[in-house]
C-alpha cells in the first residue's frame, strides 16, 4: 500500500489541462492527476493557465517573462514561443531545486521540453520522466549532457522504450490507461468514426479514403491543429457520407464513439501509444488501425484488425470483419489491457520505490 504522497506533475506550459483536450498527452495528465488525487495523494500541477484542476489538485503558476524593449530587439532574440517556454521551465526547475523541494516527495515530468531533464541533477527529490514521443534532439541532448542523472524514465509502450534505447538503458514501461467508466460500452451503429487531432501526422484523409472504398459513412471529430491541412485535404471531402462534427467535449465524444460500428486509426508516424485506440475499445467499438508504433501492443483479433501502414485498400477490406466482433469482448480487452487503474497503481508504486531508493542512499 503506497503512502499518501505529495506529487508535483509537470505538463505543458502552452496547453491547458481541460476538456476538450488539445491532445493525448493532456488527456493522460488529466486522468492521472485526478486518479492520484482520488487515492489521497496531494497533486500540484504545472500546466498552462486555465487548466481544470480536480478536487485535491492545486496549480503551480507558470511564470511569464516581460522582456525589455532592448532585449526583444536584440539580434540574439529567439522565437517568442521558444523564449516563453525556456523561461517557464527554467523558473519552475530553479524553484523545485530550491525552496519548492520541501513541498514535494516526488516529481513526475511529462513535458517534452529539455530543461526539466537537463536540470534534474540539481534536484534533491526524485523525479520520474515519462516519454510520450519518439526521441527528439533536444531531449536526447539533455539526457546525454546530464548523463541521465536526477531522473528515472518510463515509456508509454514497449515500442517507445525501444526507440529511446540509444540514450536510456533502464526504462520502466507503464502503458497509458483510460478510465473505462468515462468510455462506457455503446450500442454501435452503421457509421465509422475517426477522432483525434486533425493534422497530417494523424492522416484522417486516409480514413476518408478507406470509408469511401468500404462504402460506409464516416464521422470525424477532433480539434483542427493544422488549418492548412484541414482546408486542403479534409474540407473538400466533407460531403455525402463524410461529416466533421468539431471538437467535442468528453460526454458527446464518448457517445459518438460508442454509437459507431468501427473506429479507424490512421497514423502517418509511429504513434507512441495510441490513446484513441484504447478509448474506442473501452466503448466496445472495434478498431482498424495501421500497424505502427505502440498500436500493435493494444489490438488483438478480438478487438480489431491491424493493417499495413498507409494501405487504404487493406483498411477498407478489414472493416466488415470488425463490425461482427462482439462489442462486450472488445471492451473486456480494454479493461484488461488499457485500464487507468492499473496505470495509476504502477506509477504510485514506482514513486514509492524511487523515494525509498533516495532514503537508502542518504
UniProtKB/TrEMBL annotation:
Transmembrane segments: none annotated. One of its GO terms (biological process) is carbohydrate derivative biosynthetic process. Residues 192-334 form the Glycosyl transferase family domain. Keywords: Glycosyltransferase, Transferase. The keyword Glycosyltransferase applies. InterPro entries: Glyco_trans_1, Glyco_trans_4-like_N, Glycosyltransferase_grp1. Residues 23-180 form the Glycosyltransferase subfamily 4-like N-terminal domain. One of its GO terms (molecular function) is glycosyltransferase activity. It holds the Pfam family Glyco_transf_4. PANTHER family: SULFOQUINOVOSYL TRANSFERASE SQD2 (PTHR45947:SF3). This is Glycosyl transferase family 1. It comes from Mycobacterium asiaticum. The lineage of its organism: Bacteria, Bacillati, Actinomycetota, Actinomycetes, Mycobacteriales.
